[in-house]
Automatic annotation (TrEMBL):
<keyword id="KW-0732">Signal</keyword>
<protein>
    <recommendedName>
        <fullName>Carboxypeptidase regulatory-like domain-containing protein</fullName>
    </recommendedName>
</protein>
<feature type="signal peptide">
    <location>
        <begin position="1"/>
        <end position="23"/>
    </location>
</feature>
Length: 137
């Protein structure tokens, strides 16, 4: 009888210890949760279109372009600036890689450009400058 009680007690003790050890292994570190949620926060960027000629000099004066667009390379989603035809600023674009382009005029246009938005590209005014090469026939 004594042997049975001792073995039962040792079995119960072993069972409790093994469950306690697995519970410790499964506990979640609160700092790892904070790190994961910080990684899920989406970063947004502002981008501004500038036009340059084939030599890289800024284009001055009016153009016949009818507006600009940006397309997310991964999702295929299109984004448009402000709402005015001559608006050249994109606000709060989610982080990612985008192809920027312009709606061509009758005799002029701009070459599309693919850019990855990142904090290293942000200028002092808070915008990432995307230079599109302007052409005229």
């Amino acid at each position: 009888m004594r042997k049975t009680v001792v073995l039962s007690f040792l079995s119960a003790l072993f069972f409790v210890q093994s469950n306690a050890a697995s519970a410790k292994e499964k506990t979640v570190n609160p700092s790892s949760i904070a790190d994961e949620s910080a990684n899920k926060i989406s970063t947004t960027f502002n981008a501004r279109i500038t036009l340059v000629d084939v030599h890289g000099a800024p284009v001055t004066g009016g153009t016949g372009l009818r507006g600009y667009w940006a397309q997310n390379v991964v999702t295929g989603e299109y984004f448009y600036p402000g709402g005015q035809e001559d608006e050249d600023k994109f606000e709060n674009l989610p982080a990612g890689t985008y192809t920027f382009g312009a709606y061509n005029g009758y005799w002029d246009g701009a070459v599309s450009k693919t850019v990855t938005l990142g904090s290293g590209n942000v200028g002092p005014d808070g915008y990432i400058v995307v230079a599109l090469t302007y052409w005229v026939e």
